[in-house]
Amino acid sequence: MGILSRASYIIRSKVNAVLNRSEDPTETLDYSYEQLRDELQDVKQGIADLTTQKKRLEIQKRRLEENVEKHNEQARQAVEQDRDDLARQALEKKKQKMSQIEELEGQISQLQSQQDQLVEQKDELQRQIEEFRTKKETMKARHEAAKASARVNEAMTGAGDEMQDVNRAIERAEEQTEDMEARSQAMDELRDDGVLESQLDDRSSLEKELESVQQDGEVDAELDTLKAEMGKESTDATSGGDEPTEAEAELEQELEDDAVSSVDVDDGEVESELDELKDEQSSN
What we know:
- This protein is mainly alpha-helical.
- The chain has a domain at about 25-145: Helix Hairpins (Orthogonal Bundle), CATH 1.10.287.
- About 90% of the residues lie in helices and about 0% in strands.
- It has helices at about 5-20, 25-80, 85-155, 160-190, 205-240, 245-260, 265-284.
- Helix 2 (about 25-80) packs antiparallel against helix 3.
């Protein structure tokens, strides 16, 4: 196979593949049906033309037959008048007309045969067209059903081009969403760690540190105030009550036990330590 032959074969094969992909079976069937209908119409037109031609020959034949009768009557009249010469001329014309009639009859018979043949072909073609129309509609219905079933199966299985596009779009959206979530969490972590600062906060690092120290001082002051209030309440409760509470009774019992068991306790030291505790409570 030469280069040109191979190139021609490849081109024809590719063109055929393109046509097969672009061909719609339903449109092809409809086009074929219309072609058959056009052919049937051509056959009917041929029958009509043939019949018209036959009718013209039949009209011409009738006219010749009338002339034959006319010449035959002329020959009789000439014989009655003893004009054999005129009778001979009339009979000669009669013979000519009869020869023409025979020729016309042969043509008419031939046209009739062609007409009968065309009528049979027309009937057969019409029958085939009707069968083709039934098969066409059945095939179109099957094709539409198969196409719909294929679309449903592709939609259910996700094998179709549209579903593949949808799945890819969902995957891209999930990836973008995950990237945005990861970035947001990273920004939160960096901001909490102090690596990144808010662009809306125009304070310097020194100002921020001083503010932090001030806040810590305020917290410590409030804690000291709370402790002082709690110590004062405890002192008031101890000095103001006539009867000791259960906790005070337990403390006194422990002190008595310690006093019993201790033999070398200096009263002056105890009083001095007690005064120190009172001074600490008063200073707080």
